[in-house]
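Hi, here's the filled form for the chain we discussed.

Project: internal
Contact: R.S.
Residues: 550
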Amino acid sequence: MVKKNLPVGIDDFKEIIENNCYFADKSLLIDELLSKRSKVTLLPRPRRFGKTLNMSMLNYFFNIEDKNSNRKLFEELAIFNTDKMIYQGEHPVIYITLKDIKVGSWVECFKALKHLLSDLFQSKIYIRESLNEIQTQNFNDVLMKSENADYSNALKDLSGYLENHYKKKVIILIDEYDTPLVTAHSEGYYKEAIFFFRNFLSAALKGNPYLELAVLTGILRVTKESIFSGLNNLAVSTILDNEFNHFGLTEEEVEELLKYYGLEYELEDVKKWYNGYRFGKELVYNPWSLINFVSKNELNPYWVNTSDNSLIRELLGKNDSKVFEELELIFKGEIIWESISENIIFDDLNNINTIWSLMLFSGYLTYEKMKVSSITGLKSYSLRIPNREIKSFFRQSFIETYTKGDVYFYGTMMEDLFLGNLDSFVDKFKKMYLSAVSYHDAGDSEKYYHHFMLGLLLTLGDKYVITSNRESGYGRYDIALEPKDKRNYGLIFEFKVGNENSIEEKAKEALAQIDEKRYDISMKNNGVSKIIKIGMAFSGKDVAIESEVN
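And the returned structure, exactly as it came back:
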């Protein structure tokens, strides 16, 4: 039997159905939207979990254009057997996606938006014949990307033109509404971007008399900037809610997919790599990774390579002690409890606690349970890394952050450490450290260097139990790596800060402290017989290292 095509990289619903591609039926999203009938629905979900495909499906369902041919697309889907089919093809639709507006300046961003709106108006050019003279001029200004065009009101104006043409209210679909804002924050033009998009979206969604309903998708719920204030009928459903769970692949859908392509024997490994996300009460898999896995039959990190992850890297680079302590727990497979805000405030990204909300809603962490404080009434969530794919992202991110991207060099350096080739390790570390650390980053605080080293060493979590600032012997060591295989070397690090004239002596002092305080006693009691002890002393971009093996 000829198998259906895999829709790798295809997010157009019509193309998938007409080209006989494999499709997990999410059409009951339509039923839920129509049953709840919110004026504006915001559905934040992680990237590559089916948002664009679902929005494309909504477009083909509601769109009055090509009504009859579009109806055929739904004949084999669950929605076809519901009473909601009476709404099929009943409204003009404005459908745009902002996912590709990722540029380096506000000038480029505004230029890209003008191109997007010009293409949108071009697709509706047939309605121009029903416009009056002023409306025609306004329409042509946007179409021709004129400097005189009213781009802030473009969606509202177009919805009015469509309502006048069809005598039916308009459905507005905006996919990845927050992509330009996230990019603007990373690239340094956020104030200009939020000023425009606040007006652009408000005009279309607040009090628009031509609007039937609107659906927006994104990754984050951007707040404080008042994009959604004043909307009396706004429904927001995040991954913490039990509503609108038509994104990602369920366990049953994954089993069907693997069985269809003869890969059911891979189910357990697939679970370890791509399962583990919780959307409300549902446990789901990453669909992008699943499709790529089935296509190539290789367990690799597919999802984490589809974005620059700039916000996450920015927050990881802040070297906050609380974050590193909790990432240490996460890397060991434990959970951490954190308060989560569903509203992401870009002005608060300097507040390191924001990292947990951002990681959760972006798909880098998942949650298992929620509890409410009996005293404060505040909610907190148990967070963990969902699967091996995401763990590989953290490992790669730490390596790139702390080595300035020289991943291969880092790998050989860590191999030397693991095998006990200390001379080679020390030589490579000094070279890496010289290029990785800036005078502006380094200071006279031992904490900075402690975090730097912990960031490097956390990537070894598969082979070691990594701990820092724990009691052992007669004191508290800085960092210890106890091997999971007791035949391998254990590692104990102690750090000091000095000046350029004293770091050699400080390194010897750090190494001596490991012996004097008997920091190795816990490891030895756990059956580790071979232990590498490393004393390090730092002064700006200078480092001295002393080591020994017992």
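Let me know if anything looks off before we file it.
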